Fold this protein.
Amino acid sequence: MWRKILVGHDGSEGAKKALSVAVTLASQLGAEIHTISVEEKLPHYAATVGEVMESKQEAAEYFRKITVEAQQAAKAAGVTLRCHVLPGHEVETIVTFAKDHGFDLLVIGFMGHSKIFGRIWGSTSQNLTKLSPCTVLVVK
Amino acid sequence: MELTWQVAAVWIGLALAATLISIRIGVSVALVEIVVGTVGGNLLDLRLTPWINFLAGFGSIVLTFLAGAEIDIQVMKAKWRETLSIGFASFLMPFLGAGAYAYWVAGWSVEASEIAGIALSTTSVAVVYAVMVERGYNETEFGQMILAACFITDLGTVLALGFLFADYDWHMAAFGVCTALALWLLPKVTPWFFAKVGSKISEPEAKFILLILFTLGGLAQAAKSEAVLPAYLVGMVLAPVFLSNRTLAQRMRVIAFTILTPFYFLKAGSLVGWGAILNSVGLIGIFLGVKVAAKFIGVWPLTHAFRFGKREGMYLTLLMSTGLTFGTISALYGLANRYITEEQYAVLVTVVILSAVVPTLIAERWFTPEGEPGEEALERRSSAR
């Protein structure tokens, strides 16, 4: 049914649940599975280059850690997981990546922003569901 | 009786609030501190005591030193023609353009017009660097050339600030001789001293750097120059030492960002009156337009001369139109020395902040060059530069 699965992975509890479900699905369907992590917290309009460099290093360390954890979880289930880390805006980057690489299922965790924030701007999961070029599975 | 700790608690409280907001919204803490400073200055009774002024001044010196120490001399040497010409034009045209507008059209004094020219001539290396990193250009030849050109622009700004208002007497001679001697000796003496004392918890390396900065800053002050001038130059000559000693660079940043720069940026913001901004909305817009237009006149033709593509040329020119740290330093210097009024200060700082944001947004939205590096390998990303 689904041959190519993409998991949005930011290291949160919701993302971990999504990864677990996606790994199970990939294992059952024999599908290809990838994760995408988006680095969107580099400080804009910084005062020194060092501030940006240190934020970048912190982010790189964080994504390295969550990538290793994700790969170990997938390996335990007998699935090969490919991980991608991209800079940019979360929704825009995931949607573009899914479109460019022909994924047919996007699996994401439910991201709990506050009710007010969600009502005004829409949550990341809502926006991804709206804009994704493929079927979206939101794991709660 | 001055309630020192109550005043300190208010300032550090604002610094913490700015930090939390910056983490939440992904905007640099410096910019948020300026904005929070304006809130504090307009709504709270934020007091500027001598010790706050000292910490703020100390912050601007360390900030400038760190900016100088981030220069990659090798890139500058490899592309010296493009780097020097674009960087110099990027300084000169806005300096002349904004200064001329302030003097002949806005009716500012000569000194105030010079401060306006200097404050609006800057290019923010850090703002440009963040964009480069996000797009992955920092590792391309194009990106490295832009960054190197930004350093030249800032050098022009710092030199103008250091020399335009100085007294040319024996104090200046002493300052010039000592600075030249220090710049010649430091690249040799510093690695020797660091090797001798080693990296210790008592931080002899950082104290050595601060001693140099304060001594030269003192001489600059005596000559009515500006302490950020030697700080930037010392940073430049010590850049190779800092590039190879990342731990020291990180410690200096920790010192600066924890206890020094919050006072500098909060103070810079606290002196911006909202009333002055409202009274001068038109002038702020015009100054921003003059800055960007002057950058275009200076930089854009050179991008063609050096055979950049159309989009690359526009992108580069817009990024060179950004400004932040040196712009606020110049404006604050002008206010502290009474070359500009509080209203003129509010105008300049507002334009500087807008120039950090507006050209970046336009460049990213409409002029991102094609063929940007998309995905970066995890291995490459762990070494930031």
